[in-house]
Amino acid sequence: MASTAVTGSVMRKVSTRNLGAHKLRLVLTVLSVVLGTAFVAGSMIFTSTVSTAFDGIFDKVALGVDTEITPKEMNSLGVPDDVLQKLQQQSGQVGIAKILPTYSGQLSVADSRGKALQTGGAPSIGSAFETPQQRLSDTESVLVQGRAPEAETEVTLNDSAAEKAGLRVGSTTKVALSRGVGTPLTVTIVGITKMPGNSSGYTNVQFQESVARDLFTDGAHSQGIDLQATPGVTAEQLKQRVSALVGSDTYKIRTGDEVRADEKDNVNQFLDVFNYILLAFAAIGLIVGTFIIYNTFSMIVAQRVRELALLRAIGASRRQVTRSVLLEAFIVGLFGAVIGLAAGVGIAAILKAVTGSTGLPSTGLQITPTAVIATLVVGVVVTMFSAYAPARRASKVAPVEAMRESQTDGQTSLTRRTVTGAILGVIGVVLVVVGATGEGKGPAATVGLGALVLIFAVVFAAPAVSRPVVSALAVVFARPFGKIGQLARTNAIRNPRRTAATAFALTLGLMLVAVIGTLGSTFKGTIDSAVDNGLKADLIVAGNQGSGFAPSVVDAVRKTDGVRSVVSFAVVGAKVDGKLVGGSAPQGDLASALPLEMEQGSAQIPADGMIISQRTGTEKGWKFGQTVDFTSLTGATVPVKVTGVFKDNNLLDPWAMGSGVYQQLMPPASRSEVFVLVKASPGTDTAALQDRLGDVTKDYLTVKVQTRAEFKGQQSSQIDQMLTVLYAMLGLALVIAVLGIVNTLALSVIERKREIGMLRAIGMARSQVRRTIYLESVLIAIFGAVLGVVLGVGFGYALVRTLKYWGLGSPVLPGTLIVVTLIGAGVVGVLAALWPAVRAARTKPLEAIADV
């Protein structure tokens, strides 16, 4: 027992001293752990930071409010004035000190140049100015310059928006509403307000209360009512009394604390989704990092086989050898995770800086205990897990065999792995093909499962696949370099496990890039096809980034010289069977601008009817000739007859109704248009007409007049922006993959020090050594890239086929992306090999040959 304890103590000293004795190897190993943990830490710290910033804002929401009354349904006209009157009449009995109805709505503000003020995604809200007597809290929207609005065209503006827009007290500007029947207003800024906790980009324009009421309501409702209790009445007591007075079945009645808590919950739900997305990319980076760590420890253990065998020979057991390697892995994992945590703080700071202009609120970085613990645990667990298999494999090598001069490379037969990979590959291909033959969620899930199985198949079978594929690639990339190329090929295929593990990091990253690229190309192809084949308009008037605009835009367009016909598309929101539904209401000759293929009935929509897509009929069970009962915002039931069924059309889906029922369902204050199709009169110059339409719509601020090509370009640019974000996130995995190749090659150079020394001794020049390492790296990188692109395009193609149900067109392969990716892989191979190649070239022949 004492001997075992002494041996264990010796093994621990060997482990710790071994780390210090091989500093380069230690740095490279720690780097692999850092790469695998940094983004996990960064994503958790960043979301905690944003969450804390929002909490700070919502702590200042509804200050002074003891009870708030709002409609239960979001899609509602608001709280009727009879509720307000009832509260005013019985305020004394209920215990109400102050009553403040809220009148607000979305709008756009012109900056000092006459252009729409860009909010970066933050809200731009119009509301009623609150006098000191009306305010429920002294911290709410304080007037810091000028005075209160006293006329219909006077407003106040919050200080951050005023500064960004270049406006000040006395400035004249325009505001445009996104809905309602009004035209843009010319207003004068008479005051500057300061709001508690407003985020970057937030805009608040305040009108006289009567003006705000006219602009943002139908004149008989308010968006909500805030109440303050008299002294001695608690918020909960006031809530109960108000509920008994107005009824809690129709209205949402909450205390101020509940309002703040709900706002925080809503934001945290959004942040949870955001965090899941970040963590998904972190998981990708971690998976790639895990392969790098595994690869690293496999190489390190292989390099130390003789050393470990010597320990076995002097009495160390297999278990102690395994434990010594795991102890090293623990130390490396902990050290790497600490550095990864620091790098994660840097990543979070970068994300915070990048999102600072998007309207998200800002605060100091929040390094929470959860983020710290999660990063440390992930780093240690992943590292020890990755080190266990190589350590166990090394402990099984017989001491006498391991100490021979001619050592085995530790590679066991690949037959079992290859067979397992082949079986998984067949299963995965069958699942992907079966999924691709269907449409909808089920087939898409089947494709996803098949893709997951195929990824595991690649993990198992890649070593066997690497030899023939790398040999084939060597014909193109290595053969022109003669013996140097032949040596590079031999180095790349001599250890297929290592080659496959090194390449897999790149394979996974580029596979995801190819999937996203295929989806993006198909989305853009679908839009282009829909516009080219489905739109007959010369010009398209649309809101910026899909936002709505006031119906008065349609009248302005229709009256413009050179316009032959106009078809406008209004937004419809109502309920069917208690559920919210949305569609459009075209006005004008629909067939002239947007031809439809009808399955049943006519494309001409009667005033009291509607036409539906085939997909809508299937989903909702609506049939030709059926009458569907819609419920309006006011609660009125409006029967609408299905007079036609058209083949699925992305520009009109899911349904379109006539003008008569639209006017019954949508009150004037809630009406909004989404786009207008314009046909020019014969002989009219389209470019000149576009300029005239731009002049008559410029005061609406966010309205754009575009040709069909420009409209397609705008839609494609939005997709490109989304893809850019995804590619940027995937860039982490690719960076990790590239550094993984660097890591592997550097360790490989250490492992082959004697071999390189022998080559130098028999006459190989330093430049030839470097060239050999470059070519080896290029072969590995292109192998990984080809594997990733083939898998990614295949998965993307199959996934697109399943999405046809939702209107996605035929798959479009991203040809340019594929070519750029493969060329980029070759460049990556060269860049990744720069440092290892230089290090290999500096190997001194005599020292390397003497090294044991």
Automatic annotation (TrEMBL):
Entry protein name: Putative ABC transport system permease protein
Membrane topology, from the record: Multi-pass membrane protein
A GO term from the CC aspect: plasma membrane
Flavoprotein in keyword set: no
Record has Cell cycle as a keyword: no
Family (UniProt): Belongs to the ABC-4 integral membrane protein family.
Keywords from the named record: Cell membrane, Membrane, Transmembrane, Transmembrane helix
Residue spans crossing the bilayer: 26-46, 273-294, 325-351, 371-389, 419-437, 449-478, 499-519, 725-750, 773-800, 812-835
Domain annotation MacB-like periplasmic core: ranges: 27-244, 499-694
Subcellular location: Cell membrane
